[in-house]
Design a protein that fits this description.
Order of helices and strands of chain A: HHHHEEHHHHHHHHHHHHHHHHHH
Shape of chain A: globular
Largest interface: A-B, 30 and 32 residues
Helix content of chain B: over 70%
Number of domains of chain B: 1
Order of helices and strands of chain B: HHEEHHHHHHHHHHHHHHHHHH
Number of helices of chain B: 20
Structural class of chain B: mainly alpha
Number of domains of chain A: 1
Strand content of chain B: under 5%
Strand content of chain A: under 5%
Largest sheet of chain B: 2 strands, antiparallel
Distance between the termini of chain B: 36 Å
Helix content of chain A: over 70%
Number of helices of chain A: 22
Radius of gyration of chain A: 21 Å
Oligomer: heterodimer
Number of strands of chain B: 2
Strand order of the largest sheet of chain A: 1-2
Number of strands of chain A: 2
């Protein structure tokens, strides 16, 4: 391993070191504040190490990791998102009472798994990254151990994660048995000829891999866990599950499909298209029925992953660009939405403010908070002045460029249904509040850090929604230097 | 840069009004008023520096990698409609002066943000920028209905939003497809209107794309099968909301047809014209008939809008000089006359706490001024010669007659029905035995009289001396007809 190699994977190294320091710090002195500061500094340093890494990029470091513009940009994204989750969680945990320092160690560990996934270019790093991402997540979900809901959510997540890992491994084994390699780039070579190596075995393998990943992404029909886990997990962790873990997994999926040449196969395209349509319709329809904000956001995320698949299917650099923009917009928006839930629930004991009724009249009691929530809902609905607007344009444009009219049709139908339940929440927020509910929702004051994070997220949401050029420029640059074979 | 300020002034005014309302609600009202007067002043400053076919133009990069530009331009048509926007904006602020007492700051923020969207729609020459403004005006209008509306506001607001947004998504898909097809021809990613005018489309694609645009605009207009959101939204909205909806938002649909549908898809439009004109005539007759059957005063005015906008649709697809002049005149006059009727109904509701005509009657004795003014606008709306609506409808009929006499004859029948409902309104509300609701309600305040005076003067001007309006709009219409390349 040369110096340049080390330089290229510096973000992984720095985050690993930061993780060790946090763990050591906890071992020496149990202190919530100290652990939080160490973890935050670790994330900042990791983010800073992206610049030295960019000097060495694009570079293949061992067969396992490809560090290129695509990886670096996504790493930056999920590090920033983890940082936001950390800030949101800090106040939330402080009011929870029990000791909370391990939370930060787990957060860093799962982020490390995310980084490994994003850079992964080999089945081994694929699987390692995924497990490193998933296992600490179980701890995060079940972190507030008194109420039964988080535990239940963690058990559900554990069983389904194990199940999806099994599918994934079996799929990898099938593909390996057919192509004799686990490196994405070599797979593309092995299949270079027309129809070469694309038999039933290979298709089954890819289908199993995709199914395993679909569990993690909560694509319909593998979305059954999503509402329960979202509901049970503490709000900041829900944000993390919704955003960081899904972004990282999606990033790897796209790299695998591009680098290993899985696209260009009609069966695979059909399969992904069916998943996309099912997710858009099922997610939106199920969300219609929810009276719990977290469950509603859970099903809305199923629909959004469906939209994301539409962008995903636009092959080549266009797909990369559309997916990157969509992931950014979705991440900022979803974190802002869960940020509001977090802030409202902070200092409210172990019960979270999630019932739709609790939000009645929020606009008049907590106008700024309600404003942030309304903006994030509008962004999820894809309306102007928010990032969601351009994300929707990207997804629709991607669908049109492939001429995939069924997908575009499902996107339109799904968006209209989606609008209905987002508006329902907005209506509730704007209604005059009743007498007794406000007190419960009033209790959540939020921490200064949480409020500041929320303000920052909302600011980005609006700024890039009005003037998207900087983000688009950055993403286009990154999309160009994805280490395609 | 004038154009950028035209968009920014209502936006900034709205934000300021919202912030200032913490100090006192009166601040919000005055700031909104000042902002809209500034808008008006900016508009009336002779727009010099116009080159070629535009009175003013600004073209800035917005999201360059996506090919989206901040391209605004104003011609006579946009000018007339923005003038109407500013005037109706001022009148709505004045009309809500006493009606809106809660959350005054947020109300004015939403009102001005809607106007920002409307102004943007009338100016945008980049298709995605147009779509941006198109969607932008919906959200605040939704809030206006849902927060300050009447009894069934939630239902009405959601219906309004779903209908228009459904149309909006079709529009988005059509815009993206159009741009993509252009990209395939020329390898340039652009959404620029002037560039996309040069696209060559095969007949089938042409029709499909045209329908995508047409449905979005027909929902907003509204043309008959797509109109069901309108009576609910108009009825439940607060007065200012109804004025802006009827006076301006409906016009954006007509503007979209004029500016985009026909010039971008001339061939498909020619083939589609008989259907669209049929829809227009259906709207005229259907709207008038339903207006006649209403007992809710606001619903009556709302259905009359469906009828009046039917003339606009008819005139647009008649596509000749006379009819188009009639369309513009009809849009302006309808904005004033229907806006005034909504303000009057709002004033009545503020006083009587009801919109049910069954519970009114004999109000002429207690409110002579309001009654006389209502009489004026009712006859204006039924198309009395000498007032603006007459000019518009007459020109549309004249223009249509040259192309399709049958449609013109059927549409003329709608005029008779409109006389029925307008006179019925007057008779039921102001004549007959007084309804014993106890205590004579106060007549119109001077502020309302001022508002009404302006609108009456406008209608009389349009009716008696419409030529200056035609002169101002003519270059804009010439522009559009030149773009459309229809013989």
């Amino acid at each position: 391993m040369s110096g340049d190699d080390i330089l290229a994977i510096l973000p992984l190294v720095v985050l690993g070191a930061a993780l060790s320091i946090v763990v050591l710090g906890i071992a020496l002195r149990r202190d919530h504040r100290q652990a939080a500061i160490l973890a935050a500094v670790g994330l900042v340093l990791t983010f800073a190490s992206l610049w030295p890494a960019a000097l060495a990029a694009p570079r293949q470091v061992t067969p396992l990791f490809a560090i290129d513009g695509y990886a670096l940009l996504l790493m930056g994204l999920i590090i920033a998102e983890s940082f936001a989750v950390l800030l949101l969680a800090h106040g939330y945990l402080q009011h929870l009472g029990s000791s909370a320092d391990e939370f930060y160690a787990l957060l860093l560990l799962t982020t490390l798994g995310g980084l490994a996934l994003i850079a992964g270019s080999h089945f081994v790093s694929f699987f390692l990254g995924l497990e490193t991402l998933t296992i600490p997540l179980l701890g995060l979900i079940a972190y507030p151990s008194d109420p039964p809901l988080p535990l239940e959510a963690a058990i559900k997540y554990l069983i389904l994660a194990a199940m999806s890992s099994a599918l994934l491994l079996f799929g990898m084994a099938l593909v390996y048995s057919r192509l004799g390699t686990m490196e994405f780039a070599r797979m593309a070579v092995a299949q270079a000829g027309e129809g070469q190596g694309r038999d039933l075995l290979w298709i089954s393998g890819v289908a199993l891999i995709f199914s395993g990943v679909a569990f993690k992404l909560s694509l319909a029909p593998f979305h059954l866990w999503v509402a329960d886990v979202y509901e049970g997990a503490p709000a900041p962790v829900t944000g993390f599950v919704a955003v960081v873990s899904k972004s990282a997994v999606f990033a790897l999926l796209l790299r695998y499909f591009l680098a290993a040449g899985v696209f260009r196969d009609p069966t695979v395209d059909l399969m992904v298209g069916v998943f996309a349509i099912a997710s858009m319709l099922a997610g939106n329809l199920l969300a219609l029925l929810q009276n719990n904000v977290k469950r509603l956001l859970a099903y809305s995320s199923v629909a959004h992953l469906g939209y994301l698949l539409v962008a995903f299917l636009a092959t080549g650099a266009a797909a990369v660009e559309a997916v990157l923009y969509y992931l950014t917009a979705y991440g900022v928006t979803t974190l802002a939405a869960f940020g509001v839930v977090t802030v409202l629930s902070t200092g409210n004991g172990s019960t979270e403010i999630v019932a739709l009724e609790d939000y009645r009249g929020l606009a008049w009691r907590r106008p700024w908070l309600a404003g942030a929530f309304i903006l994030s809902l509008l962004s999820l609905a894809g309306l102007p002045l928010t990032m969601g607007f351009f994300a929707k344009i990207y997804a629709a444009a991607a669908g049109i460029h492939q001429g995939a009219w069924p997908l575009v049709g499902a996107l339109v139908v799904g968006s209209v249904i989606g609008l209905f339940y987002y508006l329902r929440v907005i209506v509730v927020i704007c209604m005059p509040g009743t007498a007794e509910i406000p007190q419960r929702a009033e209790a959540g004051t939020g921490s200064v850090l949480g409020l500041a994070t929320l303000a920052g997220l909302t600011g980005v949401l609006v700024w890039l929604g009005v003037y998207p050029a900087p983000a688009v420029g950055l993403i286009r640059g990154a999309a160009r230097v994805i280490g395609l074979p | 840069m004038t154009l950028v300020w035209l968009v920014l002034i209502p936006l900034l005014g709205g934000c300021l009004a919202w912030l200032a309302a913490r100090r006192s609600p009166a601040w919000a009202r005055w700031i909104s008023l000042v902002a809209l007067f500034a808008e008006l002043a900016l508009l009336l400053v002779p727009v010099t520096g116009g080159h070629g076919r535009w009175l003013a133009e600004v073209d800035l990069p917005w999201a360059p990698p996506l090919g989206i530009r901040f391209h605004l331009a104003m011609d006579g048509l946009s000018f007339a409609l923005i003038l109407l926007t500013a005037v109706l904006g001022i009148l709505s602020v004045l009309a809500s002066w006493t009606e809106i007492t809660e959350k005054v700051g947020f109300f004015h923020f939403n009102l001005l943000l809607t106007l920002t969207g409307v102004v943007g729609v009338f100016l945008a020459l980049d298709l995605l920028l147009f779509f941006f403004f198109w969607e932008l005006m919906l959200i605040p209008m939704y809030f206006l209905i849902v927060v300050w509306g009447h009894e069934r506001r939630v239902y009405a607001a959601i219906k309004f939003f779903l209908f228009t947004q459904g149309g909006g998504l079709l529009l988005l898909i059509a815009i993206l497809t159009l741009s993509f097809l252009y990209f395939r021809q020329s390898h340039v990613v652009t959404f620029d209107y002037l560039t996309l005018l040069k696209i060559h489309l095969s007949p089938g694609t042409d029709t499909l794309l045209m329908l995508g645009f047409f449905i979005a605009f027909a929902v907003k207009l509204p043309a008959v099968p797509f109109h069901t959101w309108l009576p609910d939204a108009h009825t439940e909205a607060p007065t200012a909301g109804s004025v802006v909806l009827a006076g301006l938002l409906l016009k954006t649909g007509a503007y979209g047809l004029l500016r985009f549908v026909i010039p971008l898809f001339p061939d498909a439009s020619v083939h589609f014209a008989p259907f669209a004109m049929g829809m227009g005539v259906a709207g005229i007759i259907y709207g008038a008939t339903l207006a006649f059957a209403q007992t809710d005063l606001k619903r009556l005015v709302a259905y009359s809008s469906v009828s009046h906008l039917g003339f606009v649709l008819l005139g647009i697809y008649a596509w000749n000089g006379l009819a188009l002049q009639g369309v513009v005149m009809q849009m302006l006059a309808h904005g004033l006359s229907t806006g005034a009727l909504f303000i009057l109904v709002g004033a009545l509701q503020e006083r009587l706490k009801t919109r049910d005509m069954g519970k009114m009657g004999g109000l002429w004795t207690s409110m002579p001024r309001l009654a006389a003014i209502a009489m004026f606008f009712a006859v204006a709306s039924l198309g009395l010669p000498g007032l603006g609506d007459f000019v518009g409808e007459f020109l549309v009929l004249l223009g249509t007659y040259r192309i399709a006499p049958a449609f013109a004859a059927a549409a003329a029948a709608g005029l008779v029905a409109s006389a029925l409902y307008a006179l019925l309104l007057i008779q039921r509300v102001f004549h007959g035995p007084p309804s014993g609701t106890g205590g004579a309600p106060p007549d119109l305040a001077p502020r309302h009289l001022f508002v009404m005076g302006i609108m009456m003067a406008g209608l009389v001007w349009f009716g008696m001396a419409p030529q200056p309006v035609f002169d101002a709009v003519a270059p804009g219409l010439d522009n559009i007809t030149a773009f459309a390349r229809i013989p």
